């Protein structure tokens, strides 16, 4: 009895291999890279180290200037609410939007880091 040979679909096999590779990559996203993978581990900085302070300084200066500008815009004769309330409200709004976008931005960064492959 002769066995019937089935045609091999190379495209189907390539898709299955790509799916397996994608699953394998997704399973190892949460663990740090090994040294033999050629990926440098993340560098962590102390909270008051020079690079952290230098990165925070422009944002702090901008925040102070924005607060002073809002306070000066809302200071006028007959104001019913103290001017600092507007600056506090804008700060709360910006922090709320930032917290809402924190997870999507973090997932985007993880996706971009895991998608860098050497060809």
TrEMBL record:
Transmembrane segments: 48-68, 80-99
Entry keyword annotation includes Transmembrane helix: yes
Entry keyword set: Membrane, Transmembrane, Transmembrane helix
Keyword Membrane attributed: yes
Name used for this protein in its record: Uncharacterized protein
């Amino acid at each position: 009895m002769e066995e019937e040979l089935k045609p091999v679909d190379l495209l189907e096999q390539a898709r299955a291999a790509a799916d397996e590779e994608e699953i394998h990559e997704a399973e190892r996203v949460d663990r740090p890279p090994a040294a033999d993978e050629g990926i440098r581990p993340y560098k962590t900085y102390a909270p008051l180290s020079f690079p952290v302070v230098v990165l925070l300084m422009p944002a702090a200066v901008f925040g102070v200037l924005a607060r002073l500008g809002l306070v000066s815009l809302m200071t006028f004769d007959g104001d019913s609410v103290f001017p600092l309330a507007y600056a506090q409200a804008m700060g709360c709004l910006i922090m709320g939007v930032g917290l809402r976008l924190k997870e999507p931005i973090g997932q985007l960064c993880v996706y971009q880091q895991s998608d860098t492959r050497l060809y």
